[in-house]
Amino acid sequence: MADIVFDGGDFARLAAVPLIPLGAFFVQTLVGRFGPRKGDWIPVGALAIAAALGIFEFAKCLTVWNPGFRVEWKEAFDWIPGPAESRASFGILYDNLSATMTAAVGLIAFLIHLFSVGYMHGDRRYASFFAHLCLFSFGMLGLVLSDNFLSFFACWEVMGLCSYLLIGHFSEKPSAAAACKKAFLTTRIGDVCLFLGIAILWTRLHTFRFTELWDAVPRVLAENGGAYPGWLVTAGLLIFAGAVGKSAQFPLHVWLPDAMEGPTPVSAMIHAATMVAAGVFLTARAFLFLSPEARIAVALVGSFTAIFAATIGICQTDIKRVLAYSTVSQLGFMIAGIGVGGIAAGLFHMVTHAAFKACLFLGSGSVIHAVHTQEMPQMGGLRRRMPITYGTMLVSTLAIAGVPLFAGFYSKDAILSSTLVHAMEHGSILHALPAIFLFTAAGMTAFYMFRLILLTFHGEPRDAHKFEHAHESPWVMTVPLTILGFFAVTGGWIFGENWFLELGKGLPGMVVAEGEAAHHEHEAHGIAMWGSIGVAGAGILLAFAFYQWRKFSAAAWAERWGPVHRWVKNKYYVDEFYLATVVRFVMFLTAVQRWFDVWIVDGLVNLVGGIGRAAAAVSGWFDRWVVDGAVNLVGWLTQLWGGVARLFQTGRVQTYVAWGVAGAVGAASVVLWMA
Amino acid sequence: MERIAFALFAAIAVGGGLVALFHRSIVHSAFALMGTFLGISGLFVLLGADFLAVVQLLIYVGGILVLILFGLMLTKPDPSERKLRRVLLVLAAVAVPAAILVARIASAARWAAAEGPLPDPKPAAREIGFLFLLKDAYLIPFELAAFLLTVALVGAVFLARQPHPPPPGGEDR
Amino acid sequence: MSLGAYLAVATALFVLGLAMMIARRNLLYVLMGIELILNAANLNFVAFARYAAPAGGEAALRGQVFALIVILLAVAEAAVALAIVLHAYSLFDTVRPEEPDLLRE
Prior knowledge:
The structure holds three protein chains of three kinds. By secondary structure, chain A is mainly α. Chain A has 26 helices and two strands. In chain A, 49% of the residues are buried. At the B-C interface, helix 1, helix 2, helix 3, helix 4 and helix 5 of B face helix 1, helix 2 and helix 3 of C.
């Protein structure tokens, strides 16, 4: 089988894939801004080399063509030397999955860098933008090549930092500053869970390496009579919680739409090549640690997110927000696909989605660059002004909507048929829910994506002034669009049946269907194909009826469904709910401490002030109640709580340190208790 | 003999730390901290880290403490600083479980530690020099440390000289 | 002496440093607390190195080298932190750590 041998040279090239961007990051940070063109060619060049190396090794891996292909470079770098159970060394795990990811991430990251050259032209922090983008690429490339949880987690956190820096690139804007903090803190909840999960695995199995952990799972199951022991279930769920945070699944999805405050290339980077894909990748890597019950939970979380975000996407008017919710929804597809056991299908969708979502984001960036607004109601008719952008975005939309022959059709189809197989095998409502959710969400996807296209590019220009000034973007922006558009069309043929569904069988945790199950699978595939064509067609027709032929009026429908529409448009008030519960709870903890201070030190003076505050709050409460009435009750109550709670956030560094220590003690207790 | 020396140095270190934490005057605290550093230096000697012990004396007692004393001279004392914050109670609530946890970790972990009387340590200064410069083992960390020190010094001078922070976002050049 | 005795001393110093950071009302105390914590960590490094490789050699020195680098970091940190303290003093006219509460916003 293995005529092609992977030797030291290959591993050196693979190691260079993440390390070259890392080096470029240092160079760009230190001296980049003094160089010609502010040094933008350093990261772009580094990513070009990394992408070329990644694709080269990918091609080599393709020629091997073996589902069980897996080579390791163990202990390439001994970080903490010592006996086997207390050492930490980094190495490379190169299998079919990481090969695909390295090539795809490298290529897309390179195209986004190239696009940024045009998009960020003239920005005040042009040089450091490229440095951070480059570090971001390093994080993702290092993550997909990691052979152990330790370096995986390090890269994971590097990405967390970079997302913070890049989302807050326009840090003068208060909304951007708030969005980057929100992204950082929300994903941090997942990160802490992931870290605890890794710690539990380590205390039990004394290794960080993926391959050793995978080998250990059957042993653990055998010792425990075939069932998953409690600590493994806990560890699996905690690791999945990390993926929930990073991949913006419900209930930690709130950061991703706000992340639109960053420059558009950053959105493309986060949504397509890095960050959110890391969560899906992690779920695939950690699939063996999930017990059967946990897998159902994963499938339900994913499918619920898919439909939940799709409904929000329908009601948004900001072009980037529609795309953001569509990403949340598509990520739900992938996670649900993995949860029902179709790991290869989920990953397949991740790769095709990376291509067409990057294309859509860069296209929207091109549009925003031309008309200087993100509001779709102010666009319209742009297809005559921006033919290349229009063409590539249309192709990507066809792909995401699941129109046959385009990339998204194959991958979405694979996920849908996996959920159907899952439902058929178990035959309970609980197991059928993912399939129901996902088919509905697929129809909605087609609807809101065509709504976007029709509102932006078709019809008559709604803002003559903006239309007059619109123009096609320069080549550095259109070339990446064209390349990504090409993959949006062909991605399904290139990877499709052969690559993922054939070679994906070697992924840990994949069950290859045989006998009757294979029959089921075949049957499900047919149903899924016609079903997905049906819902996609219905969604597209509906979008045309609303926004092109004007058979129905969207405004009138929104009017008729007033309260529901408002509820959905405001993202189900999830943010407000968090403000009222989670944030308030944290504030309450702080309040306890603050109370201590205030009571002993400041005494009565503050009490008087407090009464005054309460009185003011009560009077404000009365005002609002009379004016706004019952509809605003929910949003308003939360604002009140937010206002009250804010009084207790001390802003004192020492208080924060104290809570940090308490948190560390708590985390250590959890791990010890599990051990 | 070693036992007595250990008890002495440990008592100096921990006692100094206690005084530093609880003494009302920050100047006294700073001098008590000197005791702690001396005690730790003694412990380093017992552990066979003679070079480190000397470095500890030079840098901590001779450098950092003097720096802190300069900081004291350049700032105005605040009368309220003589009191401990009541948060100390909260801290005790954290420290007690922390200590229990540490004890549990210490008893649960299986370290590859030698027991009983250890052979006499060898002098380390020369060996460390070899490691850093001749054997190339730690050459890069060594150079990075030098680089870091330069950056820190330049940054400290820059920070201390500037009378007011620049306007938000105006620092980009 | 056993390894545990050294670890106990280091733990005590660590907790004292932490308390100093959190409970005292002067930014310079925060600084001293950090130094104490770093010293406790150094003691751990050296003790572990000594007991893991009692015969000496490169393995025994590894902990000492680590401690040396920590000391270097501590020096850099002290210089920068003192500059920050003086800067904060000129801005807020006090060295009480609870005064700069801009993070509250």
